[in-house]
Amino acid sequence: MSNARANPFNSIAVHVALLTYTAIALFPVFVILINSFKSRKAIFRDPLALPDGDTFTLIGYQTVMKQGDFFLYFQNSMIVTVATLFFVLLFGAMAAFALAEYRFKGNLLLGLYLALGIMIPIRIGTVAILEMMVASGLVNTLWALILVYTAQGLPLAVFILSEFMRQVSDDLKNAGRIDGLSEYTIFFRLVLPLVRPAMATVAVFNMIPIWNDLWFPLILAPAEETKTLTLGSQVFIGQFVTDWNAVLSALSMAILPVMILYVIFSRQLIRGITSGAVK
Amino acid sequence: MTALKLSNVCKSFGQVEVLKDINLTVGEGEFVVFVGPSGCGKSTLLRVISGLEEASSGEVEISGNLVNDVPPAKRGIAMVFQSYALYPHLTVRDNMALALKQARMPKDKIAERVAEASRMLSMGDYLDRRPSELSGGQRQRVAIGRAVVREPDLFLFDEPLSNLDAALRMNTRLEIARLHRQLGTCMIYVTHDQVEAMTLADKIVVLRDGKVEQVGSPMEIYNNPANRFVAEFIGSPSMNFVPAEQLGGPVGTQIGIRPEYARITKNGRLPGTVVHVEKLGGDTNILIDLSDGLSFTSRQFGQYDIAIGDQIAIDFDDSKCLAFDSEGQRV
Lengths: 279, 331
What we know:
The complex is a heterodimer of chains A (279) and B (331). Chain A has 279 residues and is mainly α. Helix content of chain A is 74%, strand content 0%. In chain A, 34% of the residues are buried. At the A-B interface, helix 9 and helix 10 of A face strand 6, helix 2 and helix 4 of B.
């Protein structure tokens, strides 16, 4: 193993493969970025060229800033995503802890029931959800989206987190109980820090589909003041005419916050705080 | 006063009965070791005493108080776990202080107790480190310190030395024995290692399949085991059993002979062939196949010169033998 690792040829091969993959994965992002800084004609004449003195323009960004309330959309998307992640992680982790930690009748059944949501797409229930939101007066509020996304995210969160919670040492939790810590303290202070990498995984899995979703914002909260970024960007796409400068600029700006959130969570993925707890 | 009294304690997980009618009284200041093969219920019994598991039936009394419905933190116990179970986000000092803080003890009193415990276990140098920066032995010491600061009525140890290497295990064992002498508090210790059981215990409780097989002092258990299971389990290498009729005894009964009482002679009562020799320096274990196919172990003190394949015979003093009936009970 150590020989294979030290072999320079293998190391080069691995890096070539990874770099190729990175290039392929980043290519669309790159094309969006360069074209967002180009004039409309230049985009169509030569989509892959870098912007130069003649073709460089900020017209796309200017359109986005002028037309529609871009920052409000941005803020809405951010509120919905962050609030949903908070609730998914909080309730998901608590449910997972209960399922993993306590013996009670129907534990297994409840776990399976919660996991069922992974297999059934929530969009099937769109009509019923809309009726419910209308009845409760939540249509055209951000809460409608937060509630739906929380419901959508919980099954996978519970499933993944309960598996990780089972791996947290029983001795550690018992030591806490003997030292007089409450179950809440044990959960928040001892168990949660140890499953941080799993929480980050769940957060990343949930974040991107929510940020990019068009379906539920369109149905549950299409009002001007509750539009999310994805929905807001749709004004530039028409049936006959599409303002590509604006669309590409909006998309470029939409990438940023997800990237920032991703960086925050991925730092958690690699932080080795678990060592030294047991053994 | 008794430190711990168990009356008719039973515990079952669903259909599986793990503890069956356990009765035990432990006096003040005693060091009691629960020993038995894995799966015998010794750890479960400890957890029932600590309150981490509820007894299905029966009574648990600690220092004269019935504690069946008392949560673990209020039972006046402290526990040391096999995996140390230190809080990873707290320093050594805070690890030890946490339980006292939870009990709302004044700060200066906490500092005093932590200082006293760290002096006792000589870990003053690393009070401000985190568990991840400590070695295995140091971590277990912190875990013991965390128990000591609580000044409990009862210490519970759950195989505390199993994760340590041999040299550290011996040191920590001595340390626990010294701690017991210093504090004079009753300690309950679970292990599957009979050396720990024999060296530490005032009283050994041998468990099998959730039942107490025998309770007694180490030498009592060694010299006077109640049944074949105890005789075989305690002592290393374990006791030899020979059908009594081979030695002119009643049919169906067994004669038990400890390896160290088996002399190697030219013409003893049990002839056989040497099949393996373990030279440990201090003593020598000789594995012998008796003429009727039984294997037999003899332990000779010092470095005993014998070769594999030698034809020898075993002899022993009748006074050193134990007899067991067909059910395995002592006769």
